[in-house]
């Protein structure tokens, strides 16, 4: 059994979730480092001299922009990319792209964005939340570009289960005691059915849904947009995508900001372990906040309240609660709800409501949070983020953990994250994926690249701060910006210090004079 459970494999939840949560749940000293390579270029025909002959038809394609059907003021197009970058004769796929033209006049260039995941829609991010994604100053100066990576959304997409089968896969409660042979067998059978459906319904694209291929797609987008270098803002998993681009094309790095970094050098087991500890830490921070209010359903110290929450999870694990739509809320779905709310402090009041109602036997708000995490609305799934997430991670992460390493990780999580631990492990869904992983886990230096800003938040549960520190250290030109605070990612999260540094970098090429800490 691998400790990388279904939830842990889904750990890099996209920042697009935070955008929606903000609207849905709450209603609501620098030195200029001269470096010509980092200066934005005007959008002109890029230099294609280094492009292999067999790839020139892709790089020379002309784009036709039309107003997006569902987004007045935005333009949409599609870009054709090779299915297999090593064999262009293997076929093509389509990438959906959206553009918001610079509102202040002539753009300094294009600014590509990625909201994370893997599996979140970049088209949706820019269409629905342009201001949150990049802010007014950047959308004034740049043509802001959102795109759905291969396998995602409106691009050629990974397709697996229908809504009814997805409900069963994500929410059904496995029989038998947690950790028993019967319990594990049921979950493994569910993983097999999911993988089989993905293979049957995705038209042969699964082996090519990788971060390496997606980074090569970004270089294609850079070129067909008319830019000689790539300007890019990536969140969460989007930092891994951006760092991979810098590894593959260091000479084409323009201005890159990687916010909420993923450490490309650590294994999937290390990812899962660090995230478990991160969510426990965030949960304790939430509990301190809860106990300071008048409406908290828990009492006593943080330790006592965490113990009571553990008891609540154990209770619904033994005796699930039935929601108004007939679904049963067990401990796994309740933990999903908790995790969803921990991504942003603005969602903490809704976690209080969900936990209060669950203690009263009413699970609907907890289901609301879990559904939000899973991309489910009114019984339907509004995107394919779960499917794409699985496809990318099963191809990107080598399955090289030793049993002894797994045992050590489980022991560490049990000791340091006791509330989360019982619901973090389970059969690894990638064990039954139809294709072996092709990705590697290694440090990324991107020698020769222009300065790259890496943002880390000190109590980020999903992409823990030490990952940002590590990535900034790995990158030859990395500069670390530390946001002291809670929640996932740091730009446009209320820190003028962080925001000013990012905006100055994108607008003027101003790079912090060494690492920067924003209290």
Structure description:
The protein is α/β, with parallel strands linked by helices. The chain has 2 domains: 6-16 and 160-201 and 283-432, no CATH class; 33-157 and 211-265 and 442-518, Rossmann fold (3-Layer(aba) Sandwich), CATH 3.40.50. It is built from 17 helices and 16 strands. It has helices at 6-9, 15-26, 56-59, 122-141, 163-171, 181-201, 211-224, 237-248, 268-291, 302-318, 331-342, 348-359, 364-374, 385-396, 403-416, 465-474, 496-508; strands at 30-32, 66-68, 71-82, 92-100, 110-114, 143-147, 230-235, 253-259, 321-322, 328-329, 376-377, 380-381, 452-459, 478-486, 510-512, 516-518. The chain has a 10-stranded mixed beta sheet, with helices on both faces. A two-stranded antiparallel ribbon has the order 1-15. Strand 2 and strand 3 (71-82) form a beta hairpin. The model is unreliable at 1-43 (pLDDT under 50).
Main beta sheet: 10 strands, mixed
User: Low-confidence parts, pLDDT < 50 over ≥5 residues?
Assistant: 1-43
In CATH, the homologous superfamily of the largest domain goes by the name Alpha/Beta hydrolase fold, catalytic domain
Gyration radius, in Å = 22 Å
CATH class division of the largest domain: Alpha Beta
Number of domains: 2
End-to-end CA span:
41 Å
Binned, the helix content reads: 40-55%
User: Into which percentage range does the β-strand content fall?
Assistant: 15-25%
Average pLDDT works out at 91
Question: Strands of the largest sheet, in order across it?
Answer: 2-3-4-6-5-7-8-13-14-16
Number of strands: 16
CATH architecture field of the largest domain: 3-Layer(aba) Sandwich
Shape: globular
Total DSSP helices: 17
Structural class, by secondary structure, is alpha/beta
């Amino acid at each position: 059994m691998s400790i990388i459970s279904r939830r842990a494999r889904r750990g890099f939840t996209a920042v697009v979730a935070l955008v929606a949560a903000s609207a849905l749940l709450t209603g609501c000293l620098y030195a200029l480092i001269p470096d010509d390579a980092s200066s934005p270029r005007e959008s002109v025909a890029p230099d294609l001299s280094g492009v292999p002959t067999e790839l020139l038809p892709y790089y020379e394609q002309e784009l036709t922009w039309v107003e997006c059907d569902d987004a007045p003021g935005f333009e949409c197009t599609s870009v054709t990319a090779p299915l297999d970058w090593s064999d262009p004769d293997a076929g093509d796929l389509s990438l959906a792209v959206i553009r918001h033209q610079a509102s202040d006049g002539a753009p300094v260039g294009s600014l590509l964005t990625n909201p994370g995941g893997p599996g979140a829609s970049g088209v949706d991010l820019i269409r629905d939340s342009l201001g949150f994604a990049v802010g007014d100053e950047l959308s004034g100066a740049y043509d802001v570009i959102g795109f759905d990576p291969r396998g995602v959304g409106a691009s050629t997409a990974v397709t697996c289960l229908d809504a009814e089968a997805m409900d069963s896969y994500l929410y059904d409660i496995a029989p038998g005691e947690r950790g028993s042979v019967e319990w594990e067998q049921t979950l493994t059978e569910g993983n097999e059915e999911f993988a089989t459906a993905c293979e049957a319904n995705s038209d042969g694209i699964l082996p090519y849904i990788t971060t390496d291929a997606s980074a090569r797609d970004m270089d294609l987008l850079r070129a067909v947009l008319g830019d000689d270098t790539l300007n890019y803002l990536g969140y969460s998993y989007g930092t891994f995508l951006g760092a991979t681009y810098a590894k593959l094309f260091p000479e084409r790095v323009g201005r890159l900001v990687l916010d909420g970094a993923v450490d490309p050098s650590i294994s999937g087991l290390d990812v899962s372990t660090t995230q478990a500890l991160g969510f426990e830490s965030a949960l304790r921070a939430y509990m301190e906040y809860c106990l300071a209010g008048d409406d908290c359903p828990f009492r006593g110290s943080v330790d006592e309240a965490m113990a009571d929450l553990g008891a609540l999870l154990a209770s619904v694990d033994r005796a699930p609660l039935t929601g108004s739509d007939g679904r049963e809320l067990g401990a796994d779905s309740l933990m999903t709800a908790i995790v969803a709310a921990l991504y942003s402090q603005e969602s903490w009041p809704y976690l209080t409501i969900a936990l209060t109602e669950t203690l009263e036997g009413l699970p609907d708000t907890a289901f609301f949070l879990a559904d939000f995490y899973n991309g489910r609305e009114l019984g339907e799934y509004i995107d394919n983020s779960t499917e794409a997430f699985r496809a990318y991670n099963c191809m990107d992460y080598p399955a090289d953990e030793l049993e002894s390493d797994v045992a050590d990780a489980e022991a560490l999580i049990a000791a340091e994250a006791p509330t989360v631990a019982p619901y973090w492990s389970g059969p690894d869904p990638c064990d039954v994926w139809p294709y072996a992983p092709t990705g590697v886990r290694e440090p990324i230096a991107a020698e020769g690249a222009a300065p790259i800003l890496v943002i880390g938040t000190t109590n980020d549960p999903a992409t823990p701060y030490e990952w940002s520190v590590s990535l900034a250290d790995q990158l030859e030109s990395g500069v670390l910006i530390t946001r002291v605070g809670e929640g996932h990612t740091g730009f446009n999260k209320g820190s003028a210090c962080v925001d000013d540094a990012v905006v100055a970098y994108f607008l003027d090429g101003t790079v912090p004079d060494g690492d920067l800490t924003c209290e």
